[in-house]
Design goal:
Helices cover 52% and strands 14% of the residues. The protein starts with 5 loop residues before the first strand and ends with a strand. By secondary structure, it is an alpha/beta fold. Helix 4 packs across helix 6 and helix 5 runs parallel beside helix 6. It is built from 8 helices and 7 strands; from the N terminus they run E-E-H-H-E-H-E-H-H-E-H-E-H-H-E.
């Protein structure tokens, strides 16, 4: 049973306040005003810690997507047309963004700037070079059981993430299996309005020739139809 009210000195502000002894709770050490302030400070500190944890988690996610060399980009190193397109691109248009031209224009850097905009908007993102994509495809069909499982999960991610960056399109040697999987990737993503950010060192005609008469025209037409294409 609670005892009679007593006067207590606040350990924070030294004011006198009334408290009731209780066998269930320790005696109050702070007046109601100081208690409210401390509670607010504790909640703010907990919120800040959670925000810091979230920021660290998001940074780790971005580190897995974007190579360090593209994380710190001097805008002066990017062709102005590419930079402008990357800064103005938005996933809301459900349209991709393609950068075509010779090396040195900052196409990949611009593409990662656009991808980061989607990432910061809490969209699921992935990035892969055409070379790396080819390696994933090979592993998905000819690796060990574990390698096949891992590779097929990656292929699913490339198909289903909200924004995909496909770098250096047309760079690896063409093979029937890799080209078929690339064609399916582009078909699935465009059919579901999932944007592709892509780069290529060659022109549309070069890509068509590179991919072959069977798949080249359809692939380039699909990319062109669902992308704003920027040529530095």
């Amino acid at each position: 049973m609670d005892g009679e009210p007593t006067q207590t000195t606040c350990a924070t502000c030294s004011c006198e306040f009334e408290t009731k002894p209780s066998p269930w709770f320790p005696p109050a050490r702070h007046c109601p005003s100081c208690t409210a302030i401390k509670l607010a400070e504790s909640e703010a500190a907990e919120k800040k810690q959670q925000e810091d944890r979230n920021a660290q988690y998001r940074k780790a996610q971005w580190d897995r997507i974007c190579p360090p060399i593209y994380q710190e980009t001097d805008p002066a190193r990017i062709n102005p047309k590419c930079l402008k397109a990357a800064m103005e691109w938005s996933i809301e248009h459900a349209e991709g963004l393609g950068f075509i031209g010779s090396t040195g224009a900052g196409k990949t850097r611009a593409a990662f700037i656009a991808l980061k905009r989607a990432f910061d908007d809490n969209q699921s993102c992935a990035a892969v070079t055409h070379n790396a994509f080819a390696c994933v495809v090979i592993s998905a069909f000819s690796g060990t059981d574990e390698e096949r499982q891992t590779a097929r999960k990656k292929l699913t991610t490339f198909q289903q993430c909200e924004v995909l960056l496909l770098d250096d399109l047309g760079k690896p040697p063409t093979t029937e299996r890799v080209d078929a999987e690339l064609e399916e990737l582009v078909e699935i993503r465009t059919s579901h309005n999932r944007p592709i950010l892509w780069t290529s060192n060659g022109s549309s005609a070069w890509l068509i020739k590179r991919m072959g008469a069977d798949r080249g025209p359809a692939l380039v037409r699909r990319l062109s139809e669902f992308s704003e294409i920027v040529t530095p």
